[in-house]
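Whiteboard transcription, Tuesday session. T.W. wrote the structure tokens on the left side:
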């Protein structure tokens, strides 16, 4: 992060989000630490730029928020109601609990992968997100089918 004097300063995601919730912060470039947004955002490979949320989030946006365990997550917006937002990771099988609008710290706007930059705050990437969310029942089915087949495989080959 660069301060008003032009000096570079390192801050943790937690510090940045706390500042973003007060509206006193610049954009930050980070690597995500979890697999919940794969395949769009790869763990410890891709960089994303997060800006403080200055507009109402819309379906398909990727936001960073504080969850019920007081951790920060980056997930996609599924539904927006008055003061709460429903989110889900692209690689998740269940929706997150409703999140208070006041717990949304930032919006992911840029993805950097292999030297190329992609605008996440665009209709194209929101459409990608809507498709991922529409395919959720199929992801759940495939996941359950995989787990069932894996348990059968383990039972058969454990005896050998």
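and on the right, the sequence the group agreed on:
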């Amino acid at each position: 992060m660069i301060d008003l004097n032009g000096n570079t300063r390192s801050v943790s995601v937690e510090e940045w989000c706390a500042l973003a919730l007060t509206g006193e912060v610049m954009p930050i470039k980070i690597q995500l630490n979890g697999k919940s947004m794969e395949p769009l955002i790869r763990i410890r490979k891709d960089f994303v730029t997060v800006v403080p949320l200055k507009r109402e989030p819309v379906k398909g946006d990727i936001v960073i928020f504080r969850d019920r365990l007081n951790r920060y997550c980056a997930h996609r917006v599924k539904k927006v109601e008055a003061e709460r937002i429903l989110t889900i990771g692209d690689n998740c099988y269940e929706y997150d609990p409703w999140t208070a609008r006041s717990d949304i710290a930032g919006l992911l706007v840029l993805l950097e992968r292999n030297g190329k930059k992609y605008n996440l705050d665009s209709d194209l990437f929101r459409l990608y997100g809507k498709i991922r969310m529409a395919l959720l029942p199929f992801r759940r089915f495939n996941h359950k089918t995989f787990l069932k087949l894996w348990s059968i495989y383990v039972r058969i080959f454990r005896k050998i």
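Someone added at the bottom: The mean pLDDT is 83.
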